[in-house]
Specification:
Residues 144-154 have low confidence and may be disordered. 30% of the residues lie in helices and 26% in strands. β10 (203-205), α7 and β11 (229-231) form a beta-alpha-beta unit. It is built from 14 helices and 28 strands. It has 2 domains: 6-322 and 329-392, ANL, N-terminal domain (Rossmann fold, 3-Layer(aba) Sandwich); 412-521, ANL, C-terminal domain (GMP Synthetase, Chain A, domain 3), CATH 3.30.300.30. The strands form 6 sheets. It has a 9-stranded mixed beta sheet with strand order 2-1-11-10-12-13-14-15-16, with helices on both faces. The protein has a 5-stranded mixed beta sheet with strand order 4-3-5-7-6. Strands 17, 18, 20, 21 and 22 form a 5-stranded antiparallel beta sheet that branches. α6 packs across α7 (213-226).
Length: 524
């Protein structure tokens, strides 16, 4: 079955699966069938239309996960609008710039999200209760009034129309607005369903924030595509996680490596093993092999590492479910996309050779919002250049080795930070590790490694360096080891290596000795 839009998809689901449960909110004990959910969403969509929403109007969502988020999202799509999800933890200065860049005409926020708004957006606030999930109300803030007066009735969107505008984490500069159409998202939902063999019987536990592409497309849009069920807690809770899995007979969940590490750090009874759980999915940042293996051993759940990016609606490659082959350290096989690895002249490289990962497919964005420079750099001859480095093995499995702009160039030797990271993760005392290249007068760049130890663990710099010397070539061994209490991360959970480099620069500027091989840095 093909659809022209996500609005058409939800209408199809209501007609064919109206009595099936779509959303469950564990904190409230609320279940909404597809039919009941559609009635609530349609009512809210009509309210949005009365505010002047028209086809293509951009609406910001500044909310934590929950039923309100889900209703608001599908209501905007039903009304023909474009969803702009933003992190409610952003500061007012960050929110203001993104709202202006996106050309947002309406803001939908909960009470916490409204606190992130600059003072000028606190005027003209209307409140609308969309269901009885609790005392929380949605704040509807109308802005840029001149843009939405005297508009025509909203019309049905089609595959080429914008559905979603989201921003990259901006770890290396100004965030870029990624435009995704209804066609992009429908194609992606199909690819995900195919790659993970999802059906209407599957139940997903949504523990990633919906303002991030992984949480939104993988765990919210895909269940609507398959007719499955989504369990939507307000936020991730390690202490309640296994209880939710068993209560709702969850069959899968998508996480980032940090969440898998947190679950491993908790003392739980072996009885938490769930017979219903088919697999755990990990994406958004590299998954250390040691964490993958320990999670599978302890909980008896296969971990499927996948590869995705905002510009492709999320997933472009994944490992196979058992009994298919999974390769530790690999992000798997392409699904729905054509992926190539090329050199600096865009020529295909040989099997096993590292190059830049490029791709094309129906899920790939038509381009960045109002950013000619980024579009020119990233789109060439119908291919999207990801900036990721990797290689294919002889079986066609893709391995990522780092980012093109993160490669460390030490005296002409190109070093992948991830290679150093993986060696550090072999030490069980280390919870988080990241290597970066810093300026060096002699070699151009030198390697510095930041580590965060597990609670209660003790590990000397000497032991770390001795381990590196047994596993790495001399030119790949970090010059310095710095200890952190926490790592700077973007909204998607990825370590922001650029901020680690900036931190190192501040340390050396303050005191050259402070960046020595046994530095302890409590905060950033």
């Amino acid at each position: 079955m093909s659809f022209e839009s996500l609005a058409q998809l939800i209408k199809y689901r209501v007609l064919n699966d109206g009595e099936r449960i779509f959303i469950s909110a564990p904190e409230q004990g609320t279940d909404l069938t597809y039919g009941a959910f559609y009635r609530v969403a349609q009512e809210f969509a009509q309210q949005l239309g009365q505010l002047g929403l028209q086809k293509g109007s951009r609406i910001a969502l500044i909310l934590d996960n929950g039923v309100n988020w889900v209703v608001a999202f599908w209501s905007i799509l039903l009304a023909g609008g474009v969803v702009v999800p933003l992190n409610p933890r952003f500061k007012p200065s960050e929110i203001s710039g993104l709202l202006e860049q996106a050309g947002v005409q309406l803001i939908i926020a909960d009470r916490e999200g409204a606190k992130a708004l600059p003072p000028q957006f606190n005027e003209n606030i209307r409140r609308y209760q969309i269901n009885n999930e609790g005392k929380e109300e949605l704040c509807i803030i109308t802005i840029f009034e001149k843009c939405i007066k005297n508009v025509l009735q909203a019309s049905e969107p089609n595959v080429a129309d914008e559905a979603l505008l989201l921003f990259t984490s901006g770890s290396t500069g100004v965030p870029k607005g990624v435009v995704l159409t209804h066609g992009n998202l429908l194609a992606e939902a199909g690819f995900i369903s195919q790659g993970h063999q999802l059906t209407a019987t599957d139940i997903v536990l949504c523990i990633l924030p919906f303002f991030h592409i992984n949480g939104l497309v993988i765990t919210l849009i895909t269940p609507m595509f398959t007719g499955g069920q989504a369990i939507v807690p307000r936020k991730f809770s390690a202490s309640r996680f296994w209880g939710w899995v068993n209560q709702y007979q969850v069959t899968w969940f998508s996480a980032v490596p940090t969440i898998l590490s947190i679950l491993l750090s908790k003392e739980v009874d072996e009885s938490v093993r769930s017979a219903s759980l088919r697999f755990a999915r990990s994406a958004s940042s590299s998954l250390p092999v040691a964490i993958l293996q320990e999670f599978e051993r302890r909980f008896g759940v296969p971990v499927i590492e996948a590869y995705g990016l905002s510009e492709a609606g999320s997933q472009v490659a994944t490992n196979l479910l058992p009994p298919g082959a999974r390769k530790a350290g690999s992000v798997g096989l392409p699904v729905g996309n054509e992926i190539r690895v090329v050199d600096e002249q865009s020529n295909l490289v040989s099997t096993g050779a590292v190059g830049e990962v490029i791709l094309q497919g129906a899920n790939v964005t038509p381009g960045y919002l109002n950013n000619l420079e980024a579009n020119k750099e990233s789109f060439k001859n119908g291919w999207f250049y990801t900036g990721d480095l990797g290689y294919f093995d002889e079986d066609g499995y893709l391995f990522l080795t780092g980012r093109r702009k993160e490669l460390i160039n030490r005296a002409g030797e190109k070093i992948s930070p991830r290679e150093v990271d993986e060696v550090l993760y072999q030490l069980t005392e280390i919870e988080v590790a990241a290597a970066v290249g810093v300026p060096d007068n002699l070699f151009g760049e030198e390697i510095v490694a930041f580590v965060q130890l597990r609670p209660g663990a003790q590990l000397s710099t000497e032991k770390i360096l001795d381990h590196c010397k047994t596993c790495l070539s001399d030119f790949k061994i970090p010059k310095n080891i710095l200890y952190l209490d926490d790592f700077p991360k973007g909204p998607n959970g990825k370590i922001q290596r650029r901020k680690l480099i900036e931190l190192y620069s501040r340390l050396t500027a303050a005191s050259p000795a402070a960046a020595g091989s046994e530095s302890v840095v409590a905060s950033q």
